[in-house]
Specification:
This protein has 106 residues and is α+β, with helices and mostly antiparallel strands. It has 2 helices and 4 strands, in the order H-E-E-H-E-E. InterPro entries: SutA_RBD.
């Protein structure tokens, strides 16, 4: 049996009912200022930011790029390769103009 896809409307209803259940069970919703939840001790949590390590020197590859460009420019401008002609179907008629059979011609 295929499970029906939940719609946004269903998801909203489910979330509203969960919030209502939480409030009815003496739950309390705290209001916080925008951006405040991302702060740790009043500062941004930088433990997940990947800039803790010192900058690493990059290996220059200018000679590799130059070699690739040179090879690219050295390719001869070749004429387009002739395409193979595909065989065509031709109908053979009898003396009275009625079709007899199909034959393939190159």
């Amino acid at each position: 049996m295929i499970k029906p896809k939940t719609t946004k409307k269903d998801t909203r209803k489910e979330l509203e009912s969960l919030v209502d259940q939480f409030i009815k069970a003496k739950g309390e919703i705290q209001q916080v200022n925008m951006g405040e939840s991302g702060l740790v001790d009043g500062k941004y949590n930088t433990s997940h930011i990947g800039f803790n390590e010192p900058k690493q020197d990059r290996t220059p590859l200018n000679h590799v790029v130059a070699a690739l460009q040179q090879r690219k420019n050295q390719k001869p401008a070749s004429s387009p390769t002739p395409t193979k002609k595909r065989p065509k179907k031709k109908i053979i008629y009898d003396d009275f103009g009625d079709p007899l059979r199909w034959v393939w011609e190159e």
